[in-house]
Amino acid sequence: MVTYDGKYKIIRIKELKNGLVKFFEDTVSISDEPNEILSKILVNKGDVIFALTGDPVSKQNANSWVGRVSLYTHDIPAYLNQRTCKIIQCNNVVPQYVYYYFRQYENLYSLASKATGSASQANISTKILEDTEILLPSLSVQKKMVAILASLDNKIALNRRINDNLKSTAA
Fold first, then answer.
1. What pLDDT shows up at residue 171?
2. What does the pLDDT read at residue 118?
3. Which positions fall inside the Type I restriction modification DNA specificity domain (predicted)?
């Protein structure tokens, strides 16, 4: 049963914001425990999620484009909703490397440009994602790049929290 206070949040396209999954007051959830069917759409910390529907590249805001990618950073698992997908582990690919790859404007633009649909709503399929070729260095280089970029992201997040605390203290 869908509710607002269930154990597992449902990740819809609207929860994919600026590279992260963000939950809101109106984020729906369910209490159903993972089973054989639900485990296929279960999302865990560190998973990389794509929006399969969104704005076409003709719109100005790249943060709303189809194909935008987000990292799941929450400790509690969640479930995917329609028109979202996650990267499944595969050999010689660090999922977070793919996240950082598609966070680059040029790579997101290239992916979103493959979308079909109307001027107001674009769609990509998991097949398009699967067939998209990316620059893939060795596994050790991918891991090093992810470590460096994740460290920078963590420092940025910490600085934002410090700034927010300073603003609230000054008010």
1. 73
2. 78
3. 5-167
In this structure, what are the phi and psi dihedrals at residue 146, rounded to the nearest 5 degrees?
-60, -45
Burial group, residue 9, by CB count within 10 angstroms (0-12, 13-18, 19+): buried
In this predicted model, what pLDDT tens digit does every residue of 16-36 receive, in sequence order? 999 999 999 999 999 888 888
Q: In this structure, what token pair is assigned to residue 168?
A: 């609230």
CB neighbours of residue 111 within 10 Å: 23
Evaluate if residue 44 carries a pLDDT over 90: yes
Entry field: residues in the chain = 171
Residue 129: which of 115, 141, 117, 143 has the closest Cα?
115
| Euclidean distance between CA atoms 54 and 65, whole angstroms | 5
Q: Does domain 8-136 have CATH number 3.40.50.2300?
A: no
Largest separation between any pair of C-alpha atoms in the chain: 52
pLDDT digits (tens, 9 = 90+) for 96-128: 999 999 999 999 999 999 999 877 899 999 999
Which runs of consecutive H residues, i.e. helices, occur in the chain?
95-103, 105-112, 126-131, 139-170
Domain boundaries, the chain: 8-136, 137-170
